[in-house]
Amino acid sequence: MAQIDAFFKLMHEQGASDLHMVSGQQPILRIRGDMERIKYKALDNESLKPLLYEIITEEKIKKFEETGDVDFGYEIPGLARYRGNLFMQKYGIGGVFREIPSDILTCEQLGLPQIISKLSGLPKGMVLITGPTGSGKSTTLAAIIDEANKTRHDHILTIEDPIEFVHKSQNCIVNHREVGLHTKSFSTALRGALREDPDIIMVGEMRDLETISLAMEAAMTGHLVFGTLHTINASKTVDRMIEIFPANQQAQVRSTLADALKAVVSQTLFKRIDKKGRCAALEILVCTPAIRNLIREGKTFQIPSAMQTGKKYGMQTLDDAILTYLQKNMISAEDAYTNAIEKAKFVGFLKTPPTDFTDA
């Protein structure tokens, strides 16, 4: 057992989502969104480095020492998996770990709208799960892949950095590939994927033009592609997918994306006030013919309005999802106001006037 495992066990017992171990500080846990220090001595570089190096490979150590940061996965059998990142900072080495539960929760257990589980049954196209870091994208995506694994008879291929949720083959065959361990890069793995007879491809993160381009190509050639992006809402996601391409290609990309995209799910995580825990407010865009036309014609600014009229298809805006939670007294008015897109809708719920000068 590695020495650092004791911190992971404490993290698990406390229900923390993240563990921060940084030179010059005490270890810190993120519990229900808040940072809480562990009653332990401040760590220095000399004592922390061997603690962190004990759980990564020589190859990862070499990459870290060359570049100053590295991603990796770590597992404690019977407890959980962890997504780790090592980085260098002013006072020495640092490490941040996110706990990936061993048990994959279903869409129903997560309280997700019914339309989310239906995405697992799409025959082809692209589905994007987006949101800021730590918003639960991986958990939602894992629930969708789990639904496909149980209900379809296909080949599911995941490409991740590192592997997070591990899906055991059920009705589907599931193959997990980790960037840096099983393949050189996301783009290399995607090129290879087209020769590996997949029905569903899950791309852990769409980071660059080449990966996005190959993912769109896979979606256009009969595969169902799931991917994640760090964008805040559905219309910004569409803009991001197009703007990453050179200007002279964007008209063609708009047309391709309009045909390939099936849905965008953007989520924001909130701390609950009615009980311990957190809940995800979801913005859901379903690509109807009207939405496709807006994408094709470059009128993405009209997407929010089109979503309001598309509720019968399962669409909802982030503000509507936030308002539902607020009316059920699940989240605070301050949190609702802070995360809302149209903040004016939520001012009336605040006890004191807003102090956000950026909205002046």
Tell me what you see in this structure.
The protein is α/β, with parallel strands linked by helices. It folds into two domains: 5-101, 2-Layer Sandwich (Beta-Lactamase), CATH 3.30.450.90; 114-346, P-loop containing nucleotide triphosphate hydrolases (Rossmann fold), CATH 3.40.50.300. 34% of the residues lie in helices and 25% in strands. It is built from 13 helices and 13 strands. The protein has helices spanning 5-14, 45-53, 58-67, 114-118, 137-151, 186-193, 209-220, 234-243, 250-260, 289-296, 303-308, 318-327, 333-339; strands spanning 18-22, 28-31, 34-37, 69-76, 80-89, 92-101, 125-130, 155-160, 173-178, 200-203, 224-229, 261-271, 278-286. A seven-stranded mixed sheet has the order 9-8-10-11-7-12-13, sandwiched between helices. The model has no long low-confidence stretch (mean pLDDT 93).
Kindly summarize this structure in a few lines.
Helix content is 34%, strand content 25%. By secondary structure, it is of the alpha/beta class.
List the helices and strands and how they pair.
Layout (H helix, E strand, L loop, with lengths): L4 H10 L3 E5 L5 E4 L2 E4 L7 H9 L4 H10 L1 E8 L3 E10 L2 E10 L12 H5 L6 E6 L6 H15 L3 E6 L12 E6 L7 H8 L6 E4 L5 H12 L3 E6 L4 H10 L6 H11 E11 L6 E9 L2 H8 L6 H6 L9 H10 L5 H7 L21
Parallel strand pairs: 7-11, 7-12, 8-9, 8-10, 10-11
Antiparallel strand pairs: 1-2, 1-6, 2-3, 4-5, 5-6, 12-13
